[in-house]
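[Meeting: bench + compute handoff]

Bench side (C.D.) handed over the final construct sequence. Compute side (W.E.) agreed to return the predicted structure before the next meeting so the bench team could plan truncations. Sequence as handed over:
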Amino acid sequence: MTIAGLPDEPREHGHEVEPVVDLNAPAEGGPPPMHETLNQFVEWLASWYVRKVDGRNSMWTSRWFDSAEVVIRMEAMWRAFESARLESGPAMSIWLKEHVDYHMTLILAPEGPLYAYGYNYSDQVTQGEPLPVIAPPLGMFSKETIGDRLAAAEAAESQ
């Protein structure tokens, strides 16, 4: 079975074999993605996903890309969004409930993936304000596989 946007042959990454994914390539006859990069998607999501963040009961950082888990969860939401936005009916509602609500609850959780960075690392956000986001370092997301992004995020975490 061929999945739109995935090549037939996987490529090697370390000890694992992963498919090369080009989210910028439209599916056969389909429109291009709404967000060309993961960072664009995160900026868009953060602009309307408004939550109070105090660094104790909820954690967020404009440097979201420092956490490998946050990167993978954001990419999962991005891919699901690009698929759902092209469907009719309840697809976007399902995306919000099954993807955004689920992943963002885990990301913002006080003992979630940002917990290890500590209270001082978390940005403070007043209820009603968008989540702050800064651009990741140049070249951090130059490759289009989750494995490459995970390796880059883990390297950033170890510094």
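W.E. noted at the follow-up: The helical segments are 38-48, 68-84, 91-108, 146-157. C.D. will use this when planning the next construct.
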